[in-house]
Amino acid sequence: MQMSPIVLRQPTPILQDLPTRRSLHVAIISDGNGRWATSRGLPRSAGHRAGAQTARRIISAAPGLGIRTLTLFALSSANWKRPPAEVTAILRLLHEYLLTETSNCVAEGVRLSIIGRRDRMPATLRDAIADSEAATANGTRLHLRMAVDYSAREAIFHAACRFYKVTKLSPDSFSDVLSEVLRGGSTDVDLLIRTGGEQRLSDFLLWECAFAEFVFTSQRWPDFTVDDLQAALREFDNRERTRGALPDAIAG
Q: What is the CA radius of gyration of the chain?
């Protein structure tokens, strides 16, 4: 079954009550696909396909909401413990997306990056990833990062193994090395959203989420809407981000 193309939307009136943002990085742990399907008597793979459609809607709306970097957790390295058929279905959906959407991403100014291991992926998928990343490298409207076979601990470990060769030792230079390990960059997350009711990071962007705001929702990912994303952004706007300093009201 083919998925309809992504069309990135310009801001619409429903979005205009949100403040203007610059380079906001939103990361989403898109949890609950399998439970969504099971609750409807469907195979878990149907939940992942429904979740892929949700992802398309969120990606489409992101630039109009001022999001410049969007990182989606598609497949954890720990997910290899799941039945092989389920993992294969997730990788197949990613392959479908790359084959059908790369040209649209180029036209809409979307840069696509895949972060995570690639050695356990099928060769045809690795080739499709490389082709899509090369074709979309100049996109500036949205940086779409998909975490596939990803483990934050593993990424930090491999960055640490390389770090001893760096002449200038600093948190910024470590971030640069981590960015090289991830291939898709390493920038601080402003807002992390997790669907599905769980309230943990699950080995996702541990370094980058040091000062992120967290929003957890019980909605399963296939039921998550653009309106829900807007609500999370409003919640983000209402929080005072001190990054360890005193709030402005007290500091003044």
A: 18
Q: Is residue 73 part of a domain?
A: yes
Diameter of the chain measured on Cα atoms: 58
Show the domain range for 157.
20-235
Q: What tens digit of pLDDT does each residue of 151-180 get? A: 999 989 988 888 877 767 888 888 888 877
pLDDT in tens, 15-48: 455 555 567 999 999 999 999 999 999 999 999 9
Looking at the structure of the chain, the number of domains it has is 1
Kindly report the CATH number assigned to the domain that includes residue 144: 3.40.1180.10
Q: Which of 22, 31, 60, 27 is nearest to 199 (CA)?
A: 31
Q: What are phi and psi of 220, to 5 degrees?
A: -80, 150
**In what helix (H) or strand (E) does residue 86 lie, and over which residues does it extend?**
helix 84-108
12 half-sphere exposure, CB direction, 13 A CA radius: 9
In a domain, 3, yes or no: no
- Which one is catalytic: 17, 33, 79, 190? 79
Which stretches does DSSP call E strand in the chain?
Answer: 24-29, 67-76, 110-115, 142-150, 191-194, 213-216
Evaluate whether residue 247 is within a structural domain: no
Asked if residue 28 is part of any domain, the answer here is: yes
Among 84, 68, 65, 75, CA closest to 30 = 75
- Tell me if residue 238 is catalytic: no
In contact, 189 and 25? CB cutoff 8 Å: yes
Query: Alpha helix locations (H) across 109-185?
Result: 123-135, 152-163, 171-182
Catalytic residue among 31, 33, 149, 190: 31
In the chain, pLDDT over 90 holds for what percent of residues?
71
